[in-house]
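Reminder to self: tokens first, then the designed residues, so the page reads top to bottom the way the pipeline ran.
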């Protein structure tokens, strides 16, 4: 029996009414992927206001590793609602904040003493990781990477690479931020091996300290172990370890932005575990609490203690609801085999994507780390010219057939998969079947 149930074209009549209200009351700036409105979500399924049920391969941009409305999280939230909503940790403290900090200190990479504090969003976590790094080192410079995405607040936006839509017209940006190239093996010149790509970029990193800013003026390097908005571009262990060595050589802190890669998505609790690299600071959000707004910065205890009392924080940071939800999410990941499930999902998706790649010349590359999978569409495999238009057509056709998907990449030509890890094998296969049908129908 099909889990997809499409009763109307998109947008349906009820969604169309809501779209009119949206246009009248909400600015055009907030983007929307699918032209409809949610009514109910469960697991990997999402039903809209017109009764259409979709298989969700987007997972709220990676917020739903444990699925829509997981019962364990819902029950924990109901219990917390009966106790208190938000006394604010800065006024009267509460135990769930401490319990979640202890848990993150235990499960993030490294066995050194750590401390954690909480905020509301991934961008806020990045902003505060930068503040902490500067305070701890007494340095100002922050290095990020091409195609990286770290958020929409000003420091986070300054560290973000893609100009449109994230930065266009919003400058000037924060000073003392610098950008280095990140490996993109698919787009390397012909005949250049991944090892040669890595070695060349690491040499450029060292040269940067001679030509642009001295290493002793750099507080931190921030990187995504898999670039999310940048197109699910996966760096090698050789590169990540090389960056760690450079940071150690110059006394620079390494910040791992695990906002999209964390909490089981890549087949490990955190993606940095794939590389055997221990960051000094980790930023987390998205799937930490099944979609509730909470984020975290975890780091070496002595670094986290660098800011004085009152120098970091926020009124809503670490809300009790977010904390109890996050504790249940972590318990689900640890107890229900969902981290291993991510590896199985990724293998199944990659196999199907490679089969599609053999049939359709427009699929230039397929890549995956755990259940963080993507395909890159091109106009020609030889030139690798990005095909943004075909990507948009594929997504729109999938949406009309009941599969929610999103694009990514600096060229907007990457189809990314962030399905909930609780998705069933049948649901995964059904969604992938729809994608296969769409590619067959859109064949030039």
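Designed residues (444 positions):
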């Amino acid at each position: 029996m099909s889990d997809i149930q499409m009763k109307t074209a998109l947008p349906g009549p009820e969604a169309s009414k809501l779209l009119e209200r949206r246009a009248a009351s909400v600015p055009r700036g907030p983007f929307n992927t699918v032209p409809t409105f949610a009514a109910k979500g469960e697991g990997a399924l999402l039903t809209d206001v017109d009764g259409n049920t979709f298989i969700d391969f987007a997972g709220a941009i990676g917020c739903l590793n444990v699925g829509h409305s997981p019962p364990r999280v819902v029950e924990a939230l109901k219990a917390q609602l009966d106790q208190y909503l938000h006394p604010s940790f800065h006024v009267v403290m509460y135990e769930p904040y401490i319990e979640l900090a202890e848990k993150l200190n235990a499960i993030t990479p490294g066995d050194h003493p750590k401390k954690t504090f909480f905020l509301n969003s991934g961008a806020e976590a990045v902003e505060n990781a930068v503040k902490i790094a500067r305070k701890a080192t007494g340095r100002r410079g922050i290095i990020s990477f091409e195609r990286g995405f770290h958020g929409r607040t000003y420091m986070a936006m300054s560290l973000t690479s893609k100009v449109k839509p994230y930065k266009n017209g919003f400058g000037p940006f924060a000073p003392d931020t610098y950008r280095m190239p990140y490996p993109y093996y698919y787009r390397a010149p012909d005949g250049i091996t991944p090892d040669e790509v890595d070695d060349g970029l690491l040499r450029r990193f060292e040269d940067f300290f001679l030509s642009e800013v001295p290493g002793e003026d750099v507080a931190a390097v921030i990187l995504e172990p898999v670039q999310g908005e940048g197109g699910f571009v996966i760096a090698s262990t050789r590169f990540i370890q090389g960056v760690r060595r450079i940071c150690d050589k110059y006394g620079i802190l390494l910040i791992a932005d695990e906002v999209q890669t964390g909490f089981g998505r890549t087949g490990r609790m955190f993606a940095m575990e794939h590389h055997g690299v221990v960051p000094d600071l980790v930023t987390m959000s998205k799937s930490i609490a099944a979609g509730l707004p909470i984020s975290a910065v975890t780091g070496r205890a002595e670094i986290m203690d660098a800011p004085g009392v009152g120098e970091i924080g926020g009124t809503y940071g670490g809300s009790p609801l977010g904390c109890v939800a996050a504790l249940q999410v972590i318990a689900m990941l640890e107890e229900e085999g969902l981290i291993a499930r991510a590896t199985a999902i990724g293998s199944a998706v990659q196999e199907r994507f490679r089969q599609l790649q053999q049939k359709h010349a427009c699929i230039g590359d397929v890549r995956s780390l755990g259940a963080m999978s993507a395909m890159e569409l091109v106009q020609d495999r030889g030139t690798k010219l990005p095909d943004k238009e075909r990507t948009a057509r594929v997504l729109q056709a999938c949406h009309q057939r009941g599969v929610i998907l999103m694009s990514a990449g600096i060229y907007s030509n990457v189809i990314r998969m962030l399905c909930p890890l609780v998705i069933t094998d049948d649901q995964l296969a059904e969604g992938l079947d729809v994608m296969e049908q769409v590619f067959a129908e859109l064949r030039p």
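The radius of gyration is 22 Å.
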